[in-house]
Design a protein that fits this description.
This protein has a single domain, classed as DNA Methylphosphotriester Repair Domain (3-Layer(aba) Sandwich). β1 and β2 form a beta hairpin. By secondary structure, the chain is an alpha+beta fold. It starts with 7 loop residues before the first strand and ends with a helix. It is built from 5 helices and 4 strands.
């Protein structure tokens, strides 16, 4: 983590990251925001991407794919939902 704001904000309680100009990001309380030095650091720490602003595209996913067990971008965005359904 870093104190330096970046393009993305990470929501500590939900372990979600997204763009600050996203409607979900704008609702996030400032004291709940954290920042990582890189997207890779956040994904490695277990954070998932926001389903509203979808901050990662196919190219970006290619750069972090080695950090996650999902095979494609759609599964990466839905991994929180997929994990819940597997537990039921």
């Amino acid at each position: 983590m870093t104190e330096v704001p970046s393009e993305y904000a990470w929501y500590r309680q939900g372990r979600i990251f997204g763009k600050l100009d996203c409607r979900s990001g704008m609702r996030m309380r400032k004291e709940s925001r954290i920042f990582f030095a890189s997207l890779e650091d956040a994904v490695a720490a277990g954070y998932r991407s926001c389903k509203n602003c979808r901050p990662i595209d196919d190219e970006g996913f290619g750069e972090i794919k080695h950090l996650v067990p999902e095979d494609n971008l759609q599964d990466f965005y839905n991994r929180h939902t997929l994990k819940k359904s597997l537990r039921s």
